[in-house]
Amino acid sequence: MRIFLTGANGYIGGAVACALIAAGHQVRGLVRSSDKADAVKAHGIEPVIGSLDDTALLQAEARAAGAVINAASSDHRGAAEALITALAGSGKVLIHSSGTSIVADHAMGEPSDKIFDEATPLTPVAEKAARVAIDRLVLEAPGIRPVVICNSMIYGQALGPPAQSVQVPALARQAKASGVARYIGRGRNRWSNVHIADVAALYVLALVKAPAATFMFVESGEEALGAIANAIAAKLGLGAAQSWSADEAIAAWGRNMAVFSLGSNSRVRGKAAAALGWEPKHRSITRWIGEELT
Length: 294
Fold this sequence. Notes:
The protein has two domains: 2-160 and 192-220 and 267-280, 3-Layer(aba) Sandwich (Rossmann fold), CATH 3.40.50; 167-189 and 224-262, no CATH class. It is built from twelve helices and twelve strands. It has helices spanning 11-22, 34-41, 55-64, 77-87, 129-139, 167-178, 196-209, 225-235, 246-253, 255-262, 271-276, 285-292, and strands spanning 2-6, 26-31, 46-49, 67-70, 93-99, 145-151, 153-155, 182-184, 190-195, 214-218, 221-224, 242-244. The strands form three sheets. The chain has a seven-stranded parallel β-sheet, sandwiched between helices. It has a three-stranded mixed β-sheet with strand order 7-9-11. Strands 8-12 form a two-stranded parallel sheet. Helix 1 (11-22) crosses helix 7 (196-209), helix 3 (55-64) runs parallel beside helix 4 (77-87) and helix 6 packs across helix 8.
């Protein structure tokens, strides 16, 4: 199948593109520059130079493709609207990427007992309401087969063009630069997590098997951020990880990263992915850090 994929040089998009090509699909991937076009070509991806703001380009590529995967941004409503409009009435698959910060709280290192699955009613914090609205816009799109894949904390080496995930690299960079690994508050906040290879495999599976209007949380484990920081410290040969106050963390990482990516709880259970037959091969983020973090 010919697939149009946004974010082809990104961490998720590059991995998904490579998995699709390995499964026999042809991938045309959106990138922003000629340098990035050269990078994706090396992995068998046909580059399309443009941006999520190029509505006419997005729609032309979507109409020419057999399926569309948006792996570039969870928060760009204009791109989602453009793709929905282009595909309306075609019956084609549109897979949109979201993230489990939609269930995040303002815990700043404190634990929570709240665990979400796909059937759990969701009232997001104000900062994540727009993302939830985009997810619902995609799921309710008429005349297509819409799927929303909601990824938790992703870890693992990039499987396509060079790129990094969000949380673990941020924690590792700070630890390397300062000599002290950090967590926020008591570090007892927990995030579900999943390996990038397992994420890519799910996109390939969902392309073929996911019913229309499927929303999927993606996870294969869960860990406290304090434990993740301590695993990074051990891997780098540093002393025990230490706490940062909320103010210190926000000053170092910025508010969005500190509050939602590193200080919150985001605990989910992915029943829909399991129902498709998805069988993740990786189950421990701390084991991966100890064995493979560089």
